Amino acid sequence: MTVTQPWWSTFERLVARILADHPAFDDAYARRVMTQALAFLMACGANPEARLAPSPQVDVGWHTFILFTHDYTRFCHQVAGRMIHHAPDDEPATGAAAVDRIGATIEAMRAANLPVDLELWLHEAKCSQCHQGCFDDPAPEA
Q1: Domain with 90 in it
Q2: What residue spans of 1-142 are helical by DSSP H?
Q3: How confident is the model over 53-74, as pLDDT tens digits?
């Protein structure tokens, strides 16, 4: 996945924001995080009924993008035809359930031919729960 020209300036702003908010990240890592966040959102768009969840690292990119509401809204409508809502889970999955949710997300990304940077996802397999217990809120039934 490459960032297309219309989104390049937004991508650069998002990377800059990640770097400002997370001084321990270097430029290359921030770019990887944001690339995976965009791929995750595209997978959410392709799977509107699934409860896909980001890894803690990818969630950083999603949280950053949400701050840029106009760009985030346009992106969501472009890739999903709808808003991709961020829904914190009050009772996040733990243990095997958390690993299963991340595994399902990775599978959805691969099925959509999106890149998967396993280093940013596999950390979750060693954790007991998602960073913030976040997932894509499936589209409401019509």
Answers
A1: 5-137
A2: 5-21, 27-46, 56-67, 69-80, 95-111, 118-122
A3: 999 999 999 999 999 999 999 9
Q: Is residue 142 part of a domain?
A: no
Taken as a whole, the chain contains a residue count of 142
Amino acid occupying residue 28: A
Say how far apart CA 97 and CA 77 lie, in whole Å.
Answer: 30
Grouped pLDDT means (10 residues each) for the chain, 142 residues: 66 97 97 97 95 94 97 95 89 77 95 96 54 48 46
* Residue 38: partners with Cβ closer than 8 Å, 6 or more residues away: 1, 3, 11, 61, 65, 75
Q: Does residue 108 lie in a domain region?
A: yes
Count of domains in the chain?
1
